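Tutorial, part two.
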Amino acid sequence: MTTYEHIAEVLTPEAAELFEEMVQTHLAASGDRMFLQADSIDGSPLLFLGQSRRNWEKVDRGALDDLVGYGLLRRDYSSRSTPNYRVSGESLAFHRWWMDQRASALEQVDTEAQRLILSDG
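Running the prediction step on this input gives:
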């Protein structure tokens, strides 16, 4: 079983950035929300189909595969075998945990910086 700590440790910067953008897009919309991968000769654009539309011109397919592999995205296929992705409840739980971890790390740095600034030395 993969832990949140392990996932946070092994995510590539590209996968982490893509995940963050996809979750923020998902959270900003309501109703049926889906990301559609439209592979072409020119690359792999990703389209968000929800209340609003958002397009990523070129997406790192390896980052998408990593996110699916760690359970952060659910991948399905349309009747035309086009991959589509959804952000799951588990993804949102991981995202909340991840944001808390990042916030506490920033708080630790801030505390240490304040201690150094306010010290006599």
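Helices lie at 4-10, 13-28, 61-69, 89-118. In part three we will examine how such features are distributed along the chain.
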